[in-house]
Amino acid sequence: MKFTKMHGLGNDYVYVNCFEEDVIDPSSMAIAVSDRNFGIGSDGLILICPSKLADVRMRMFNADGSESQMCGNGIRCVAKYVFDNKIAEPGSSFSVPGQPTLPHSLTVETGNGILTLGIMPGEDGLAEQICVNMGQPILEASEIPTTFHCNPCVGEAIEAGGETFEVTCVSMGNPHAVIFSENLDEIDLEKIGPALENHPAFPERINVHFVKAESPEEFSMITWERGSGITLACGTGACACGVAASLNGKCNRAVLAHLPGGDLMLNWCEDDNCVYMTGPATTVYCGELC
Ligand SMILES: N[C@H](CCC[C@H](N)C(=O)O)C(=O)O
């Protein structure tokens, strides 16, 4: 079976074109291909499938085989794959609040609904920068009662790993716990990450992010991902952190997120309440599973 290895800021996945391949058990396949010694090595598996509702459908599986509703770095790579391989005819333009209009657009069916994105090609004519309308953040536990059992407003106290954390919970279709810290180097993510990921307040588990507000225009973050552990970047997580930083009065709605794997431009737009995420997508290699 053919696959393509791609990453968004080092958040790497194995991509399978399900217009041409059949994946019978994606959960088991995600576990197998994600293994960095006995498999291909990745943060998970992403299937690019036909859709009746959008140009394509994206399904994302974590390294532990669990399926998530959305993947921000992943959807940028899906857009690149679809555009570069001409799988769908892109739309003519995509307007981005506060930024120049992008020349091409695509729609992707996800677990968080149909999302629209814009593509800026590089000099080689291939997709280089992608801006995704990630939709509206969900902040009320009542809207997603099985996701958060804590009050997602600012600063809910959660006990984990022998410590108390003030957690702001934001859903971007998938759940995120955001904690602010003045020193990210001091965070024992290997210990605290799984303790919060699996906390009883989060019956669907949760992605965990620690954020340092550098200024009103910039923040830095580190991530423990639900089902995948520490990753170099988390696109939905960065969007959730941007929303949380604004809610907590630490950053502006338009902000530059510094992730270990690189930067994302974020804008939680006041007009439509949607979060716009702009960043790169990279094709590493194409391969074939024996
Ligand atoms: N890396 C992804 C997030 C995956 C989230 C997944 N770990 C979950 O279970 O929600 C991103 O760029 O948004």
UniProtKB/TrEMBL annotation:
Catalyzes the stereoinversion of LL-2,6-diaminopimelate (L,L-DAP) to meso-diaminopimelate (meso-DAP), a precursor of L-lysine and an essential component of the bacterial peptidoglycan. The gene is dapF. Pathway: Amino-acid biosynthesis; L-lysine biosynthesis via DAP pathway; DL-2,6-diaminopimelate from LL-2,6-diaminopimelate: step 1/1. Its main location: cytoplasm. It catalyses: (2S,6S)-2,6-diaminopimelate = meso-2,6-diaminopimelate. PANTHER family: DIAMINOPIMELATE EPIMERASE, DIAMINOPIMELATE EPIMERASE, CHLOROPLASTIC. The active site is at residues 71, 234. Gene3D superfamilies: Diaminopimelate Epimerase, Chain A, domain 1. Substrate binds at residues 11, 62, 72-73, 174, 207, 225-226, 235-236. Belongs to the diaminopimelate epimerase family. This is Diaminopimelate epimerase. One of its GO terms (biological process) is lysine biosynthetic process via diaminopimelate.
